[in-house]
Design a protein that fits this description.
Blueprint lengths: L4 H61 L3 H14 L4 H16 L3 H14 L2 H17 L3 H8 L8 H14 L3 H14 L7 H10 L12
Protein name: Tetratricopeptide repeat protein
Keywords: Cell membrane, Chaperone, Membrane, Transmembrane, Transmembrane helix
Subcellular location: Cell membrane; Membrane
């Protein structure tokens, strides 16, 4: 059946459009198809990497429980090398820092914690800085520890940070300042905070007075 005039005009217009833009459209379609394939591959790779990193995290926890520091350090290195951008890298580094500290390897513990400070998210950075200040306290690097505690932390770390500051000030025999730090720690901790009782003991041990808590209305 012959096309009527209107159909012939539409066909001619389509042919002219394709002749003018056909090659460009093919390129765009090829790029789009390639981008989608790349995105799909990336998502699949992310799932595989997350599963592998999770498995390694389980292994490092088992090794830490078994006090196998050598294995802990090896796994932490593998995770940081292969999955540095994942949350598991920070998590394994914190575990490795604790294992190194327990093995009296303060240098190794500091290296792991510093890596988290430089590469972790805000939550892990705050945890790492707090623990690093504790290592510096053990090394008698008091000024360095106080300087670290003066850097930004997430708000809910205010109590533990003040507590750690008090510990360093006690070690420096700055008792009046230490009392102030412990009082600040108590003020930042609610009644159910697990560290509150210890802060109270430390405050009383240096002659401070624990403030009365207000009864709930």
């Amino acid at each position: 059946m012959a096309y009527d005039l209107e159909e012939q005009e539409q066909l001619a217009a389509m042919q002219a459009f394709w002749n003018k833009y056909g090659n460009m459209l093919m390129v765009v379609l090829i790029i789009a198809a390639g981008s989608y394939a790349g995105y799909t591959w990336m998502k699949r790779a992310e799932k595989v990497n997350a599963a592998e990193a999770s498995s390694l995290y389980t292994q490092i926890q088992s090794a830490a429980s078994a006090k196998d520091n050598a294995k802990v350090q090896r796994i932490a290195g593998d995770v940081r090398t292969k999955y540095a951008k994942s949350a598991y890298a920070a998590m394994t580094s914190l575990t490795a820092a604790k294992s190194a500290f327990d093995a009296n390897d303060l240098k190794g513990a500091k290296a792991h914690l510093q890596w988290v400070v430089e590469n972790g998210n805000d939550e892990y950075k705050s945890i790492a800085k707090l623990r690093l200040a504790g290592v510096l306290l053990d090394e008698k690097a008091y000024d360095e520890g106080l300087k670290l505690l003066a850097t930004p932390f997430l708000p809910h770390f205010a109590g533990p940070v003040a507590d750690r500051k008090g510990d360093i000030l006690v070690a420096q025999n700055k008792i009046a300042e230490a009392r102030g730090a412990y009082l600040a720690a108590l003020a930042a901790m609610d009644a159910k905070h697990p560290g509150r009782a210890l802060v109270q003991i430390k405050l009383e041990a240096i002659g401070g007075t624990v403030p009365e808590t207000k009864a709930a209305a």
